[in-house]
Amino acid sequence: MPYSAPRVLIIPGLHDSGPAHWQTWLQGQYRDARRVTQRDPSRPELERWAERIQRTLEVAGPGEWLAVAHSFGSLALAKHLADHPGSPIREALFVAPAEPDKFGLAEALPHHRLPRRSRLLASSNDPWMSAASAARWAYRWGASYSNLGPVGHINAEAGFGPLPVAKSWVDAARARHAAEQRPRHAEFREWAFAI
């Protein structure tokens, strides 16, 4: 069976991610990337958003995915992963999650390690979630944590068109997956030669 790299799933936050947003830039870097499109991206409804992720995956067909979520989309992704332990999402990148308490959703989110390898990128001056809260959620979800410094909400308004760290994460995750797919070769002395 030929090797197939995991595809990239873009999960925007409130009001979607416009043409100047780094998520749109990232989607353009991978021809097989897909975007989760909410019916109403201005209404933060956790259950509906999480189920929309599931529906997008079902429609896209079989295969593994690398999910890249921003803001409220990060909360929907965490909910999806907790509700669907068999999800085809292989790894997850949470960028500048929104503070669940702002939406009264802290109890609706998982408070345990998620069943996938993940990373959370935060900012020291994000108006949507403090760095301390981001570190707590990363710890709960078992995600590695990086604070990018005083860079706001890591969106177009904060000056992020391209976000090279997100592309580096995708490329590294794909490389890990490719390495795991390579057949393990026997030591030379283990080969038996028929004459």
UniProtKB/TrEMBL annotation:
| Key word Amino-acid biosynthesis present | no
Alphabetized InterPro entries for the sequence: AB_hydrolase_fold, RBBP9/YdeN
Whether Hydrolase counts among this entry's keywords is: yes
- Name the Pfam families on file: Ser_hydrolase
Q: Which domain of life is it from?
A: Bacteria
Q: Which UniProt keywords apply?
A: Hydrolase
GO terms for MF = hydrolase activity
Q: Which Gene3D superfamilies match?
A: alpha/beta hydrolase
Which protein are we looking at? RBBP9/YdeN family alpha/beta hydrolase
